[in-house]
Amino acid sequence: TIILGIETSCDETAASIVKNGREILSNVVASQIESHKRFGGVVPEIASRHHVEQITMVLEEAVKQAEVIWDDIDAIAVTEGPGLVGALLVGVNAAKALAFAKNKPLIGVHHIAGHIYANRLENEFVFPLLALIVSGGHTELVIMKDHYEYELIGETRDDAAGEAYDKVARMLKLPYPGGPEIDRLSAEGKVTIDFPRAWLEEGSYDFSFSGLKSAVINTLHNAEQRGETLDPSDVAASFQQSVVEVLTEKTYRAAQEYNVKQVIVAGGVAANKGLRESLKKRFSSEDIELYIPPIHLCTDNAAMIAAAGTILYKKEKFAALDLNANPSLMLE
Ligand code: ATP
Ligand code: MG
Ligand code: FE
């Protein structure tokens, strides 16, 4: 099975061709980060316009690099949501046009299912598994007993982990996107500030990062008023420690309680070095297999959409040509 995947939900225009859900034949990503940087975040109008400008070239490049012809491609999978509606529509319309013109089945993929299936590109799933999803818009713990069966056991009650990283980075006057910047600074700093950890109610697998965000603001304000300057790398290291500790511990407890065989990590924050190390350490003595994708597959790409689309192709879950973008699509 050869699937063409298309992803345009946020600020990456991406197309990829994947064979049998595992083998990446091409994976083209045109990032818009430079264009959004001076605004300190993604500007939806600019994102849509860039997608329109880039999509044709990205698609052509993906087909060319894969060294396939259209006859080889079995179906076209595209992110239908969630994400920015204007951005999603560019990918959805390109996918519909191609499906119609080339007479191929169309498949709508949930963006987070894509992040989850990025894990399967290099390592086969073993069920039941636990997925920790940590991205720009989501922080969730999901149990999977089989392909494409998602049971949400915990989620954030306010900010997503990536969102918290980006907001704290802005307070520290670091460039967008802030996650990688804080990660880099953390390695140079020391944990000198005891920021709160939101464990929530006993046994809860939910998350909350808004209290931590406020604590960082207050700490910076208080220091400023006292005329002190805090070392930004220490603030970054202390913040990261607080986030990573809660993510690791809740993932560990859930893995135990649900008796999973495998733990996978998905989304942009899975690129975080502190989180990767902490999870590896926590699961080192367990029978549970921990797998974290390589960094280029953690952030937005289309190989993950093709990988998830392969499963839907096998299940014959096709979309009609009136497929629409759905900015608030649910995973379950
Ligand atoms: P979603 O997937 O929820 O729709 P998104 O697609 O915008 O949101 P991703 O592309 O999965 O999110 O991830 C981007 C987020 O990951 C940003 O918030 C970014 O700061 C964060 N991020 C990327 N690399 C790192 C890192 N090394 N450490 C921490 N955060 C990181
Ligand atoms: Mg992005
Ligand atoms: Fe994403």
TrEMBL record:
Its EC number is 2.3.1.234. Fe cation binds at H111, H115, D300. It is found in: Cytoplasm. GO terms for cellular component: cytoplasm. It is an enzyme of class 2 (transferase). NCBIfam families: gcp_kae1 (TIGR00329), T6A_TsaD_YgjD (TIGR03723). Substrate binds at I133, V134, S135, G136, G137, D166, G179, D183, N272. It catalyses: L-threonylcarbamoyladenylate + adenosine(37) in tRNA = N(6)-L-threonylcarbamoyladenosine(37) in tRNA + AMP + H(+). Its cofactor is Fe(2+). Keywords: Acyltransferase, Cytoplasm, Iron, Metal-binding, Transferase, tRNA processing. Required for the formation of a threonylcarbamoyl group on adenosine at position 37 (t(6)A37) in tRNAs that read codons beginning with adenine. Is involved in the transfer of the threonylcarbamoyl moiety of threonylcarbamoyl-AMP (TC-AMP) to the N6 group of A37, together with TsaE and TsaB. TsaD likely plays a direct catalytic role in this reaction. The keyword Transferase applies. InterPro entries: ATPase_NBD, Gcp-like_dom, KAE1/TsaD, TsaD. This is tRNA N6-adenosine threonylcarbamoyltransferase. The keyword Chaperone does not apply. PANTHER family: TRNA N6-ADENOSINE THREONYLCARBAMOYLTRANSFERASE, TRNA N6-ADENOSINE THREONYLCARBAMOYLTRANSFERASE, MITOCHONDRIAL. Residues 23-306 form the Gcp-like domain. GO terms for biological process: tRNA threonylcarbamoyladenosine modification.
